[in-house]
Specification:
Blueprint: E1 2-6, H1 13-24, E2 28-30, H2 31-40, H3 44-55, H4 61-71, E3 81-84, H5 90-102, E4 109-114, H6 117-127, H7 136-150, H8 152-159, E5 163-167, H9 172-184
Parallel strand pairs: 1-3, 1-4, 2-3, 4-5
Helix pairs in contact: 1-9, 2-3, 4-5, 6-7
The chain binds adenosine monophosphate.
Length: 186
């Protein structure tokens, strides 16, 4: 099963991707987590993306696409994966289509987890993960970037007939229940 879990910052993608990983035994691939690990480990990639990430802006498409393409070579992704935080621009979505094609694979579904802006800000401020991009100013930038650059990605997959919409309001369990009923019926 190959799934994209899509939604604004604070929608709960990471939490739900981990639950899906556990239940269905398919690995989560989170570009944001990979960048945070690279920064922590002070790798070359980490040094290149640190200031961009901390500003709340997007890392350049080519950097993200190369990272995803290299990561997917690992056989642990052969039976599927959940993408969390990628693709975030139309250019990334187009590049991902090429990666799928080269690997002879197809995307099963693109799930848009939908939550309104007011609730997103509340959740990010409450999550207390200590992320350097979780301050009120950075969250504002991330939401703007999402609305301008990332939101159009949903239409891209709608045109491909891959879009599933899931209400992201409610408890973690309630949202997970909605996701599993969708995935069980694929
Ligand atoms: P996330 O953990 O998904 O919220 O990502 C945190 C930050 O990492 C984002 O605000 C971006 O700076 C960067 N990032 C993660 N994924 C991507 C992506 N697909 N494209 C560009 N930047 C990304």
């Amino acid at each position: 099963m190959r799934i994209i879990l899509f939604g604004p910052p604070g929608a709960g993608k990471g939490t739900q991707a981990k639950l899906i990983q556990e239940k269905y035994g398919i690995p989560q691939l989170s570009t944001g987590e990979m960048f945070r690990a690279a920064i922590k480990n002070e790798t070359d990639l980490g040094k290149r993306v640190k200031s961009i990430m901390e500003s709340g802006e997007l890392v350049p498409d080519q950097t993200v696409v190369d990272l995803v393409a290299e990561t997917l070579i690992d056989p642990k992704y052969d039976n599927g994966y959940i993408l969390d935080g990628f693709p975030r621009t139309i250019a990334q979505a187009e590049a991902f289509d090429r990666i799928l094609e080269e690997n002879g694979n197809e995307l099963d579904t693109f799930i848009s987890l939908e939550v309104e802006d007011d609730e997103l800000i509340k959740r990010i401020m409450a999550r207390g993960e200590g992320r350097s991009d979780d301050t009120p100013e950075k969250v504002k930038v991330r939401l703007e970037v999402y609305n301008n650059e990332t939101a159009p990605v949903k239409n891209y997959y709608e045109q491909q007939g891959k879009l599933s919409i899931v209400n992201g309001l409610g408890s973690i369990d309630e949202i997970f229940e909605r996701l599993t009923s969708l995935l069980d019926n694929l």
